[in-house]
Design brief:
single chain; 202 residues; seven-stranded mixed beta sheet; globular; alpha+beta; 2 domains
């Protein structure tokens, strides 16, 4: 600390108040302490003031069309993986599956319940792969339909193609698949835009 003693000896020294020890400093020090305590809280309150509040980006809710398409795609992936734990909650307890294929005596319609479908999925140990593309969704209130072309492979070999139609209802718990209808076409299938399996479309 610098000495402000007047010339003339130590006995008659008169010292001016130091800038750091004078009355003004004694008042300023507690003030700075109080400000250090208060300012952080004032800053938090300013953030909540109108016009100063930080802008948080909002995420638009997923549309019903996007939800049912995603559920149809989840169904296909789980079917290919024989993942009944994922398939079961996607299907309504009352869901049914219908298919039509050409047999020796003409078109043959088959039906299975949810339980029959889940129990029989992949029971013979074969490797399955189903792919869909360009799905379209129609939603009307609590009813929805998803339609998509598909192809199907067994143990890496092409088996058939066709069209999948998923029926949905929206209840208290959200959307659920109430029915899957598809045709089985074994000849004359157009090439899939996904290319062969393993080429980026599997």
């Amino acid at each position: 600390m610098q000495d402000f003693t007047r010339p003339g000896g130590a006995s008659g020294d008169h010292r001016r108040p130091s800038p750091r020890t004078g009355p003004r400093h004694r008042v300023a020090a507690p003030l700075r302490f109080l400000l250090a305590l208060i300012l952080p809280f004032m800053g938090a309150s300013w953030m909540g003031a109108p016009g100063i509040q930080a802008q948080v980006p909002t995420v638009a809710p997923e549309s019903s069309e996007a939800v049912v398409i995603r559920m149809a795609e989840d169904f296909i992936r789980a079917l290919s993986a024989k993942d009944t734990a994922t398939l079961a909650p996607l299907l309504s307890p009352y869901a049914t599956l219908h298919s039509v294929r050409v047999g020796p005596d003409g078109p043959e319609i088959r039906k299975s319940t949810r339980e029959e479908f889940l129990a029989g999925l992949g029971g013979d140990g074969r490797e399955l792969l189903e792919r869909i593309w360009d799905p379209t969704a129609t939603v009307a209130g609590s009813v929805a339909v998803v339609l998509a072309p598909y192809d199907f492979f067994v143990d890496g070999r092409f088996s058939h193609c066709g069209t999948d139609i998923f029926a949905f209802l929206k209840g208290a718990g959200g959307w659920t698949i109430t029915g899957v209808t598809y045709d089985v076409v074994r000849e004359g299938c157009p090439p899939s835009p996904l290319g062969p399996p393993g080429a980026g479309g599997a």
